[in-house]
Structure formats: C-alpha cells, structure tokens
Amino acid sequence: MDQPSVHPVTWKRPPVLFTHTGWRRAIYAGALIYLVLAMQSIEVDWQRVYLGLDRGWKFVEGFLTPDFTTRWRDISEGLIESLTMTVTSTVAGILVSVPIGIGAARNLAPAPVYLFCRGIITLSRSFQEVIIAILLVAMFGFGPFAGFLTLAFASIGFLSKLLAEDIEACDRSQIEAIRATGASWWQVVNYAVQPQVMPRLVGLSLYRLDINFRESAVIGIVGAGGIGATLNTAIDRYEYDSAGAILIIIIAIVLVVEYSSSYIRRWVQ
C-alpha cells in the first residue's frame, strides 16, 4: 500500500531575517504601536483643515478654468527664464559631470582621483535643491543666476554618480581588447567605454533636463527666478485661475520632454 506524501502541498518562502514566529509577531506589533503613537502625536487643527478644503476646492476650480491671458506677460517671462535656466544648467552640468564621472569610476581612475571625484559627488548629493537655492540666493541675490548655479550643482551629482556606475558596469572584455592593442588611456575611454555608455548618458541627460525644469518651479519660490516666482505670486494673490494656467504649462512641457526623450534615445542607439 502506497504511503501518503509527506511533502507540503504549497510552497512558502522562508523568512529572511527572523525565523522564529514570535519575534516576527513582536516586531509587527511594535511597529503598529509606534505608528499609532506617532499619529497621535501629530497636532491637527480640524478647523484649519476645513478652511483649507474650501480653498483647495477654489484652486481646483481655477485649474479647471485656467486664465492664460490676464497675466500672460508675467507667465511668459517666467517661463522663458525657467527654460533658460533649465537648458544652460543642464548643459553645464553635463560638461562638468563627464570628467567627474570618469574619475569616479574605479575601473578607469587611480585611487586618489577616484576618492576626490567621489567626494564631489557626495557633496553635490548631500543637499536638496531648495537648500542650495536658499544659500545661493543669500550669496548672489534674487534672480535666475542663483537658480542656474543651483540646478547645475545638483545636475553634477546626479549625472556623475549614474555615469560612474555605468562605466563600472561596462563589458570588461571590450576594454581589455582595446588595451591589448596598445591603446592609451584616452583611446580606451573613447573606443571601449564611450560607445557603451553614450545611449545611457543621453537618456540621463534628458531625464535631468526634465528634473531641472520641474525644480526651477520649486526654487523660484525661494527667489531663484523662473516660473516658480510667478506661480507663488499668483497663489499669494488668490489668482487660482492664473496658477492653474502655469501648472498646465509646466505639465505640457514635461510631457513633451518625456515623449521626445524616447525617440532621441532610439536615434542615438
């Protein structure tokens, strides 16, 4: 007579950290208790929330009925300023990021250069754009110059880090094949590394262009120029229809960059 199977009918993934069921339940219970206590510590003014809902609905109404004509001069000037900051800061960031990214790649740069470039990347990525904008506005005053420096500084850390990681992930066989021909360091970079990372660099640059345009609207609120200053003024004056028009323009430009980037990457490849 055949013996019944002792194997489990369904497969269950084994726990990764804690194998004991009691420890897992205790951790889940502790996390739930902490979440409840943390939510209770938040002071909520329900009257202010009620008034905020009314103002929020007015903003939604303004977004649904945007006004592009009343403040078009201010909107166009702020938009041109944002686009100028976005393009120039992205180009400057790319030009500076390429040598820093190459220096931050362990398989191409010696240790001193690697550590120095990694330090620059860490410094650039340590601060959010708004904090950098506040510091630069205090140093250089209100206007697009502070916004340009802010976006360029943030672009350096973003592009350099991802470029260095792509270089380190390159196919080593191609690099060794070029080196075996007696090629110099620059020839190895140009003929073995550059063809592998160029499509990725183009995609990252377009993505950073998108980010810089959106960030230009944020840093403009703290005085770094761009469409953000116009948006902040419209909201302060309760001109929600003009604010809705500005937001629609921002969304439209981001969509154009998003859809065009795929075609550009395909063309580069």
From TrEMBL:
Its main location: membrane. Residues 79-261 form the ABC transmembrane type-1 domain. The chain crosses the membrane at residues 26-42, 91-109, 130-156, 243-264. Keywords: Cell membrane, Membrane, Transmembrane, Transmembrane helix, Transport. It comes from the Bacteria. It holds the Pfam family BPD_transp_1. One of its GO terms (cellular component) is plasma membrane. PROSITE patterns: ABC_TM1. It is a multi-pass membrane protein. It is found in: Cell membrane. GO terms for molecular function: ABC-type phosphonate transporter activity. Belongs to the binding-protein-dependent transport system permease family. PANTHER family: ABC TRANSPORT SYSTEM PERMEASE PROTEIN P69, PHOSPHONATES TRANSPORT SYSTEM PERMEASE PROTEIN. This is Phosphonate ABC transporter, permease protein PhnE. It comes from Marinobacter confluentis.
